[in-house]
């Protein structure tokens, strides 16, 4: 590994600022590494940096395929958008370009962000740099693998039910899902509108804070965006004095790998050593999160994906008449998991079933949000393992969608509640990374980052092994 | 058995905002296809809607004018169905929490008023004119996303004629509000009708059918009449009306089924997650209130009570905003009395202009006021003034100058009138004889002769008086 790519994103930005490294040299190093990627993490690699200067000093950025980038393929991992080049750029990518982060490449993902393994990509699965027979997690699997393999200094992902945090955990990097509304969704090819949020995938907590700080904005093009009341500060804290960590007693640990559980317990001890107290907290409805999520997200997706009809862009498979053009296009263009969720969502919204499914799921969602509000009256953060397992083998769960869905068990409740949560590397189990999740109240990102930073220093995880 | 029709109306009104309902594209007025589009109104991947505040304000103005209850918060829903004119695969509309509920216009109650976006325009190649059987279809997205207010009435209308009259009142009210062009031919005002029949005296509703998209008052009236007749025919021959959506073809007068109840869409409505609720602020409401003009019903009342017009004349004027505006402008001119001026407009001007907007015609309000003044001063007769008005409609100009140039001034010079009467009596000796003998019936013949000879410049009353005195009656 070259010295240039040894630097974290924040270190690289400082080096360019201080004249110790040229932005061109930095970009070229990553461009060459991304072009030589063997993990299938990239669907596109840029030739030249499209911006320079700014606060981020030309540190290149890998961007999940589903972000629209003007004139550059943006396919959301789907055959139905194969080769599609949008005429505009997503607000969050534009914000980062203005801050001086050039586009390094577009990363592989589960089709329309539906999946927890990146096996649902129309462009083939991504390999985990820790074990190339295993998945990187998903749906932001390409972004996570690229950062873990050191072919990108940092990356953008999106999280709907865990799609940033779970791949971050499986690849041994940091992933943060911001408060819903902190970051504009304009130009993100939608999966589930009320849940989707863009967030950073980075080597460490400092990089996550730096990237997030330049992502947030109140966007006039996104009615649900609210930006943030304050600036994201770079984390400094090495202590957790007075911090109360809530350990939920209502989330089942059945099905959690022993190694993952051990790592979780070990880190709780470390937290106590840093001055934190561990308290039991109650999230009585969180156990129903997966059930509610797999009604709400497919329902919204079934509507969001209706625009892929072969009329204006993307794939068109001609039939004889209008109806056969629709059915052929969508038959040929969507993968099995996308079709499954469109069917689920269409059913859940059907007249006569709406109240029993969508209506009830929304009520559960409200209850879960209330659970968190009440929990945060007694604790500062809720802490869980990020995912119940470490990375599984490619193909291992391909025929068991329910087992795959359960991988989101610990991440979905925060998505439903719209609150921020981070996953940090939590050591290895059987040689594979595990993740530790901290979730806080809406807009508590700065405090979450501070606590995560203190834990990160104490855990002392070394991810350099996969960055070759 | 006698049957009574029960009719409810659904009216789609394109709102006159500068930009579209959910994006920044300007509204289109015949621009080349697909030039008023952006990622949002093309439904491109990743694009998001943002509600147009001006459309909400215009919607509130409609709600205020129709005396609706305005919802402090209302939300948008997605109405899901596939069609090439619907780029997102759903229409953003309002469902169970609309902007306005209740209210009335005249004697018809309003059920609700809500906001939504218009579909794009489809053009089908080939002879069928419909998507089925056409060789190819193209889509123009210029119209897609235009703001619409949908006004839904209660089933209070009882005849085709009432429907057509009420729609005229609604159109005038909307035009007066300035919220829409309300042009039916261009589709900025579109009407669907829900129609059922029931035995007179029954309180229950029969099965209703929906008659779609009629684009003129005449077609609406004929379409509803045809549908009532069709339903009566079915019921009287022992059949049952089926719930279905129908199309009226004005060319043939025939009604065809678009889809049956079984084929009805399941629109899978759910709250639009990309938009936040519409919360009506005090400022927005105050701004909508301030923009509210005097409405046609109130204007008619004022014309009646303050200007002394008959109730019918007051309505004729007030319910056609363009004529009411013309009238009020003309009233400011010199020498015209409110009542004769109103009668000249409702009897003479409307007959000459038809559907043309008087403000766009060659007759200026001041010119008409001057003409009516000349009549009041007896400087020109009614018949002469009608000729002057013909000239004004054709070429415009100044009435006094036309009277002068055309020699249409009233004959106040008795010498000329005397001569004309003498000539008329001489030319009709048998009539003169009958008059002398006290039979006044043929007086009209003499008046007509004099009028012809004087090109209408004589006053009929004056001619009668002179004839009587000449014949010693
Ligand atoms: Zn537009």
Question: What would a concise description of this structure say?
Answer:
Chain A has 468 residues and is α/β, with parallel strands linked by helices. In chain A, 35% of the residues lie in helices and 13% in strands. Chain A has two domains: 2-236 and 443-467, Amidase signature (AS) enzymes, CATH 3.90.1300.10; 287-362, no CATH class.
Topology of helices and strands:
The complex is a heterodimer of chains A (about 475) and B (about 475).
Chain A: H1 9-17, H2 23-35, E1 42-45, E2 61-64, H3 91-98, E3 103-107, H4 141-148, E4 154-159, H5 165-171, E5 174-177, E6 197-202, H6 205-215, E7 244-248, H7 258-273, E8 277-281, H8 289-304, H9 322-333, H10 336-349, H11 355-375, E9 381-385, H12 401-406, H13 412-417, E10 421-429, E11 432-439, H14 445-459
Parallel strand pairs in A: 2-3, 2-4, 7-8, 7-9
Antiparallel strand pairs in A: 1-3, 4-6, 5-6, 5-10, 9-11, 10-11
Helix pairs in contact in A: 4-5, 6-14, 8-10, 8-11
Chain B: E1 3-14, H1 53-65, E2 69-70, E3 73-74, E4 77-80, E5 90-93, E6 100-101, E7 104-105, E8 108-117, E9 121-124, E10 137-140, E11 147-153, H2 160-177, E12 189-199, E13 209-214, H3 217-236, E14 244-249, E15 254-260, E16 270-271, E17 278-279, H4 282-290, H5 296-307, H6 311-318, H7 321-331, H8 338-353, H9 365-376, H10 382-395, H11 399-406, H12 414-427, H13 429-436, H14 443-454, H15 460-470
Helix pairs in contact in B: 1-4, 2-3, 5-6, 6-8, 7-8, 7-9, 8-9, 8-10, 9-10, 12-14
The CATH H-level homologous superfamily of the largest domain in chain A: Amidase signature (AS) domain
Detail the poorly predicted runs of chain A: none
The best one-word shape of chain A is globular
Basic shape of chain B: elongated
Whole-number mean pLDDT of chain A: 96
Estimate the helix proportion of chain B, in percent.
Answer: 25-40%
Query: What is the string of helix and strand elements of chain A?
Result: HHEEHEHEHEEHEHEHHHHEHHEEH
Tell me the helix content of chain A: 25-40%
Q: List the domain count of chain A as a whole number.
A: 2
